Amino acid sequence: MNAPKEAVIKMYAPREEIYPREVKGRYATLRWACVWLTQLLFYGLPWIQYNGRQAVLFDLGARKFHLFGLVLWPQDFIYLAGLLIICAYGLFLVTTVAGRIWCGYACPQTVYTELFLWIERRIEGARSARIRLDRQPWNGEKVGKKAAKHAAWLALALWTGFSFVGYFTPIESLLAGVRHLDLGGWESFWVLFYGLATYGNAGWLREQVCKYMCPYARFQSAMFDKDTLVVTYDRARGEPRRPGARQPGDKLGDCIDCTLCVQVCPTGIDIRRGLQYECIGCAACIDACDTVMEKVEKPKGLIRYATENALANGWSAAQVKHRLLRPRVLGYAAVLALMVAGMSTSLALRVPLKVDVIRDRGSMGREVEDGRIENVYRLQLMNTSEEPRLLRIAVAGLPGAVIVDEEVVEIGGAATRALPVRVRAEAGGKAGSHRITFSVTALDDDSVTVREEAAFIVPH
């Protein structure tokens, strides 16, 4: 008796290669405008100079973040946390209004996939030529085109990694290190790591990042409601569909089943099946369908941005816009505006001077030669502005308390200085710990004043 044959059960479907067709239209133009804007900012900002230094530099070694005229220190981490919260909340608000519009126009994965696809089309040709090239056996033409494409991809990816590291290491010194083959170990690692990540995500993984790796696709539905703008297919107008011309009296929809909406989709879905989590809201299918409707002399908008309520109730564009400003959206916008206003006010009122007072624990209060009591402190001064300052140091809180050392000190722009300070007060007071207050004031601006309390020890 023959033994039963083993059956192989696949736990997942193999990936089908997607060859997005190039499309032109108003949304494609808008998408490319976003590509240009984001990449001009990303690649250009590290090269802008401000006050003789790089305008945007996150100097981890010196523990200083330079944002044009603003210098942030580790103590200002709260601003970074606030910025991340604002960005996340802004993304939630945009998603509630217009679905995954961020994914379709400004997400780095979408932007770099567009750039890599542009390179692929310039070298390998249009969609049909790329399909034909992949199916043909390896020969000189195929090897040449594939090598040229991947070389261009790697060049762009490495330049992207270089620009990314340029935000953390001064980009001119980084360029000099590359030119002289003298790049540091960590810089080399991150240039290669970020470059290869860009090459892998935008060149190879592409839609798989959006479909399987990005968590945003999974929880976006929690922010959608029936008045959220999403890319939709008007089934009532388009069905039943059939290829070919329409004759008077035909009970057919406007969709001619050309499948161009599927061919241009970067994630390979058929929007006519309804909203799917793979849809990134790029509107490429809208441009393709509008072009076809124009050719067959039908109204545009068979595929369009609309809401579930708008399709169900046949609302006009004005009614859709009116529903966009619903209480949920207004509430989100109000909270976001308050957070932005609060953070902006905090930055505007931020005193560009920080002071930490540390009492010398190795030297308790002692009586000195003139019969007075002396305590020793260390003042950690931090000038968060770009200009050097002269600072006056004073102390109050005990009768006759004075600073023995220099009362006026200089500190450079965006610099720190540790300063030993001896404070003496009249003897005869109550033994124990007493509160005193140090005040540090800029001589050129009385509003730049910081006060810090400390303990003054009177021995028994």
From TrEMBL:
Record protein name field: Cytochrome c oxidase accessory protein CcoG
InterPro entries the UniProt entry points to: 4Fe4S_Fe-S-bd (IPR017896), 4Fe4S_Fe_S_CS (IPR017900), Cyt_c_oxidase_cbb3_FixG (IPR014116), Electron_Trans/Redox (IPR051684), FixG_C (IPR032879), Ig-like_fold (IPR013783)
Domain of life of the organism encoding this protein: Bacteria
SUPFAM superfamilies: 4Fe-4S ferredoxins (SSF54862)
Domain 4Fe-4S ferredoxin-type stretches: 245-274
Transmembrane annotation, as ranges: 30-50, 77-98, 151-168, 188-205, 329-349
Gene expressing this chain: ccoG
Pfam families listed in its UniProt record: Fer4_18 (PF13746), Fer4_5 (PF12801), FixG_C (PF11614)
Swiss-Prot/TrEMBL keywords: 4Fe-4S, Electron transport, Iron, Iron-sulfur, Membrane, Metal-binding, Transmembrane, Transmembrane helix, Transport
